[in-house]
Description:
The chain is of the alpha/beta class.
Amino acid sequence: MPLSHDPSSLSPEPAHAAAADWWQTGVVYQIYPRSFADASGDGVGDLPGIIAHLDYLGPDGLAIDAIWLSPIYPSPGRDLGYDVADHTTVDPLFGTMADFDRLVEGAHRRGIRVILDLVMNHTSDQHAWFQESRTDPSGPYGDWYLWRDPAGLDSRGRPQPPNNWLSFFGGSGWTWDEGRRQFYFHTFLAEQPDLNWRNPAVPDVQMDMVRGWLDRGVDGFRLDVFNVFYKDAALRSNPSAGSHRQAWDRQLHIRDKDQPELEEFLARFRAELDSRPGRMSVGELFSGTTERAASLTVPRHLVFDFMLLQQPWSAAAFGAAIDRIERAFGPDRWPAIVLSNHDQPRPASRLSKDLGEAHRDAVAKAAAVVELTLRGTPFLYYGEELGLGDIDVPRDEAIDPPARRVGPEFRWWNRDGCRSPMPWTDGPNAGCAPPGVRTWLPLVPDARTRNVASQTADPDSVLSTERRLLRTRARLRPLHAGSLERIPADDPDVLAWLRAAGDERVLIVVNFAPRPVQTVLGSALGGTTWTPVDGTHREPGPAIGPERRVFLRPLEALIATEAG
Ligand code: NOJ
């Protein structure tokens, strides 16, 4: 039995996903470009900043398989890049196309794939298409957006919206345009008008754009809110969903998303990617269930399901979520495993909320074991590997535009919290921007101690643990390619599961409680002995013998293989 999980005792080369099935066996790391590293000195992260940190992500660093970049296209920034003014190039804020090419080349040289965020449901209102559409209704772009006449006038003579559809960011989804004397529809901000996907020119131009990026070497795409592209052709109102706190939840969204025509477009989009080896996509299912995510999943094309991300830190909640995901996806569909992204509170803050700050790192490590050992492709959000917490941004200082429209009861309020600059060092601006520069959002308050440099030097830090776990995941085939079977434990705070690929089996046991536990696991383990090989703690706990009794330290999660 090894005395400690010294990374050098593991295989020196991470089993790097060079193969075409990397979308399934690999790990994706999401970068929020504004916050990763600022090379230009304007307080906002950029592509040269990312390039400067590729070694951190590459085989000698985290050894992830792909980076997903949140939008890098020109944008007025009303939704911080998710309002795109030109999908075919890079925002000067982030650099140039030459920088982009250097980034792709540098990433590929290190075995890292590059996934771009495609925002195709809507554009910025500053996009040339919308400007033309607004000013020239009978021109070539006149029908590219969802324009409609008013349903009538109210008692004061004001035009009434064509139906009851809402904006997710608050209020009606319809905005009146004085010039066209018509309403246009927007699922998000009024500055993000939705495209009219029923006009064949729209999917055509999107496919041209997709091909352009693929030709440039991009390995895949994350599809922003892809199930919203098509709306009911007759624009019928949504039926009521009864009383709920948030207006959005008071409607059944059966007319403003999830229309059957989506599948036709997906088939076309996916066929284009499939015609080029090694390409993949992941769709962001907006306001949908695990079952719906599973139904849209096919090989090479994952769909985010946010079930795990919505759970509190408890064995019962995670157990139920894992069971539901496994049931919905079945053995043949491959899930995407997500604990955080740029829209959600960070897991280190969220999951340790009830246990308290003292347990934050321990929860972050245990959550990392969960995320890296479930069946599916893990998507890590930058800073998650440091146990980074949320920052507190008062409402009147909020930068996230939707946070200015809606109150703290809004489920994405306030996304500034999870977008703070990446702390690299204990120096000025945590090394994320040159000294003296004001970063676009404040640093986390503990950046002096919680940063890449200090955590690299500490073998027990969240970062060192994550690096070790990533290598273990790559080394043990069942963890990145195997089936999953849940194993009962007789302690309610413990979850266990088995991963199996061929003859190889790996056991994962997680103690969700901040107290030591002793528990007996189910008989599916068989009469063998299991040896802990990795987990939250560097010093492994005792082997698990044929009596199947496990001893776990507070918040310990272990990964064990069969002795033999
Ligand atoms: C989903 C993205 O994740 C979110 O950040 C954005 O605000 C909306 N789509 C609108 O594009």
